[in-house]
Amino acid sequence: MRYLILSDLHGNDEALSAVLGRLKRKRLDRIVCLGDFVGYGADPNKIVDRFRRMPRPTLAIRGNHDKVASGIDNGDTFNPPALEAARWTREKLSRENAEFLRRLPPGPAIVDGSFGICHGSPIDEDSYIFSDLDASVNFLYLERLVPGIDLFFFGHSHIPSIFTLDGDEILVEAVRKPRARLVLEPGKRYLVNPGSVGQPRDRNPRASYVLYDSGTRTIHFERVAFDVERSRGKILRAGLPSMLGDRLVAGI
Ligand SMILES: [Fe+2]
Predict the structure, then answer these.
(1) What is residue 110's three-state secondary structure?
(2) Nearest CA among 119, 243, 239 for reference residue 252
(3) Which long-range contacts (CB under 8 A, 24 or more apart) does 53-60 make?
(4) pTM of the predicted model as reported, rounded to 2 decimal places
(5) How far is the CA of 187 from the centre of ligand 1 (A)?
């Protein structure tokens, strides 16, 4: 099976369009989203509409911004610009799209008996995985919970990265190249972040995503440029905090 793994779309239609445009002729069996469809960006309805009408089977879990924007969570842990954007999004979402976000299941989930997905971490959908210590507690948890699953995709940090458990060692890699390939090796365990489609934060403003081929056990990391100034202009015209547009330009 060939999967497209998307995360942290954040209401950015230009970014999602660029990703789907690049993959138009690619053979894909399933599109998987790790959450945060909305929040920050000015096109929450377009993003949810497009995902709901994808021409291929989809699977998604919720992110923390989806919870606040759809009224499941009050956002008291959000910083002021994030909270302002979530409240703006709540007002703009159509009834159907708010319902779609409300009904998204929490992670973790297992896809086709093959690999796992979560938003923040397998232990807690709202926690981050940044360090080898964060990864190690999650590897321990997963070894007990799902011993047969050696690959988990996570989002939330918006940083394309790979954590590999090899025996007692954990290897931490930030993926910086515009294209990178990872072939999974037997006996190792992996936590992989595809990066963010709609709000990259690794000082690279290009949209980030991965393709996973479960037959060859190969992950491809890819980046694609989108019209950042157009996304920024929409954020400014919507009256959202200007820093949400400015950070897109720098990819931070
Ligand atoms: Fe996010």
Answers:
(1) strand
(2) 243
(3) 56/28, 56/29, 56/30, 56/31, 57/29, 57/30, 57/31, 58/30, 58/31, 58/32, 58/33, 59/30, 59/31, 59/32, 59/33, 59/109, 59/111, 59/117, 60/32, 60/33, 60/34, 60/35, 60/104
(4) 0.97
(5) 31
Q: How many angstroms does the Cα of residue 186 sit away from the middle of ligand 1? A: 31
Alpha-carbon separation of residue 118 from 35, 138, 160, 182 (angstroms): 8, 11, 15, 20
Residue 55, pLDDT score: 86
- For residue 10, the CA-to-ligand 1 centroid distance in Å is 7
Tell me how far the alpha carbon of residue 111 lies from the centroid of ligand 1, in angstroms: 21
Could you give the 3-state DSSP secondary structure of residue 130? coil
Cα 105 to averaged position of ligand 1 atoms, centre (Å): 16
Domains and CATH numbers, the chain: 2-250 (3.60.21.10)
| Helix and strand totals (H; E) in the chain | 8, 12
pLDDT tens readout for residues 222-248? 999 999 999 999 999 999 999 999 999
What is the gyration radius of the CA atoms in the chain, in angstroms? 17
CA of 158 to the centre of ligand 1 (A): 6
Average of per-residue pLDDT across 44-52? 98
Count of C-beta atoms within a 10 Å radius of residue 84: 16
